Amino acid sequence: MSRGMAHTGIAEAAATAADAPASEYAAHRKLLMRHSEALAKALLADGATTHRQLPVGCPTATDIALAKKRTTDNEKYDCALATIDATSGQLAHSDQDGSCCCGDPLSGHGNPLNSVAATVLAGPCDGCLPRYFQHDYRRRIATLTADRTWEEIAEWTPTELKQYLDERTDHRVAIERAQQLLDALDILSEHRYVDGVSLTDLPTTSYDHLVAFLTELPNIDKHDAWWLLLTAFDKPVWPTDPALTDGAVALGLLAPSARDPEQAHRPRIEDDITDRLLLPLHRGLATILQMRGSDISELTTEVRKFFLSYRMQKQARPIEAANKSVIVDLFAGAGGLSLGFETTGFQVALAVDHNEAATDTYRLNHPEIPHERVLTTDIEEAVSSDAFSKIAASGDVDVVVGGPPCQALSIAGYRSRRADDDSYSVIDDHRTTLYEQYIAAIQRLDPEFIVMENVMGIVNRLEETDHRIIEDVIAELDDAGYHADYRELDCSEYGIPQKRDRVIVIGRRKADSAVPEADVAGAFDRLDDYQTDDPPNLRDALSGLVQIRRGRGGQVTVGRTSGRRSDFVTDHKLGSDTSIVFNHQARRHPKPKDRELFETAMSPGDTSWDIVHSTEYGHLIDYDVGTEDEPRFGDKYRMLRWDDPAPTVVAHLAKDSNNFIIPDYYDHVSVNSEKADSRRNRGVTPREAARIQTFPDDYVFLGAFTSWFRQIGNAVPPLLGHHVATAVADTLATSTSDSVEAVGSSVQAAVSDDD
């Protein structure tokens, strides 16, 4: 791929992003700022999957640590590429020069003069972006300084320098370049900023003065100088050139109005991004532009979701309005229910949730929905927003969906709060009546159908009373003009690989149907078409995911298995076709007793109860599991069975995953003594939990590690959402057809009367 072709592709992507409304750009940039670390890793991981060398610029190539806001003196940050877990071996196509897995030949050398010398030796360059991929010149400098000091080298003639390098490296050095390198050493030795031939003890000076000093050296222009400030001198700056500027615009880091080709660095980005993330993010953007520049508008990996240009492409695609029913998702969380409805052909007009990490995940994975229509607020404020009022006034909403927060009614949540406060009462918990706000929103939107998902606690009697919340829900929906009914179901009986008991409420606007009761009953009948006596199991759900040991994986992981995916994964398109996996991070389990439990004491199907009452390892369980007559939390530790559906994926996994231990696949399923490793007996990863919840692998969860678990555990399984959506869509289509026939009959009757 030529440099010109790449820049053309980047410029086209920037032009696409430039079409974004100001509000869309501003909201997207804030999203990137909140998750700049995930963005940097995603960009670098994408590059690590290509058949090209990884970028140079490793932080270990310099010993200087002068950037501001360090927590300790001379603190160094790790190479971001070294923090990306390559589960199937080394990072792709790193030739392993230097001491870091990123393959920078100067990694571990420590002297910033080495990077400067490599830049001089490489000659003039069209911008600073290509500097990240000049491995050969850095390799020559690494060879040159392996057994010579810069003071010794400065005494050589150009011919001696050329001969030394020609004999020890694969490529010959032009005599002109050898002369330029020696000229640079002469300039350095005579400059007032340095003492001898060195750049390690520079005095404190402004960045502009340091740039002016570096541009005195041969082959270094202002773009190169700012790049060296970042990569060789550890300064918190954002170097740029025309390609990097267009790339930053396409991503959404820069406004289109900032496309000034003469500007050599970007103060606004420098001010808004944490110091430690400037280098990895800059390396990451340079990597994807260099390796995929001409195809930047056609990215197929998950990283495309971070680009503003991709969002604008998705939002510009025409929607066949006549074939799209419109939904509003209240209490949307990370978007599981929305995803299920979208895969059925519905269009989301608005999504609301109060949790920012969840709505950030929603925004990233639903790029076709403008940011202004994803509201991070509580339901009361959302109803009074301009976006809500505009959609309500349109009268276009066909279905309102949502799951009001259920923690107050869930068994796990109730136990947890009672343990902390024995005076806690579900009746007094404000979350118990959040459904009232949901119904108030429904009255404003006036949809034809409503769908609500909740925990089984909604149908249970409240504490010592005979009262059930579901009765209030049905009654208040009736007052709002909807006939509603509910169904208790176990998700495993509907083709989802977990035992998850939930309540689904479906309501039909009475004004639209002569027999709304029949419409609701018909929707539940259609839902029952998805019932199965042979539910998928844990093995089906996790098929194709890399099996990792405790403490491995990460926010972004590179690697894939070569094994066959299950029909379940294939049929529901849960697997990704790329080698990047997000959110596949296993806990370390640092407690020795836990490791002994998982590696030695427990077998698939075992719980704390079994360990205490049936094994010699009962001393490892440090809490009271109770007696047979009065058991207490007997499953705080639990190892799953591969051939059974998983237990319920819950938000509590954010605290620990001891009751969701995955046994080693190669010890218990595909038995292989060479591959078996007891360190793979560990808690479920967020990506595995997402698979069990039927989220596809390209659905990226943002936020902290614990937040991933909360988002996943609180979500409606997208596959269940798809089943419900199909049932509602079929009922909508049938009722629409019936209405058309009724109108036709009325017209025909009127014509007959006229005759």
UniProtKB/TrEMBL annotation:
What GO molecular function terms would the record report?
DNA (cytosine-5-)-methyltransferase activity
- Tell me which EC number(s) this protein carries: 2.1.1.37
The Gene Ontology biological process terms listed for this entry are:
DNA repair; methylation
Sorted alphabetically, which InterPro entries does this protein's record hold? C5-Methyltransferase, C5_DNA_meth_AS, C5_MeTfrase, C5_meth_CS, DNA_glycosylase, HhH_base_excis_C, SAM-dependent_MTases_sf
| Transmembrane domains' residue ranges | none
Q: Which top EC class applies here?
A: transferase
**Which UniProt keywords are listed?**
Methyltransferase, S-adenosyl-L-methionine, Transferase
SUPFAM superfamilies annotated for this entry?
A: DNA-glycosylase, S-adenosyl-L-methionine-dependent methyltransferases
Q: Which family does it belong to?
A: Belongs to the class I-like SAM-binding methyltransferase superfamily. C5-methyltransferase family.
The protein's name in its UniProt record: DNA (cytosine-5-)-methyltransferase
Source species of the chain: Halorubrum cibi
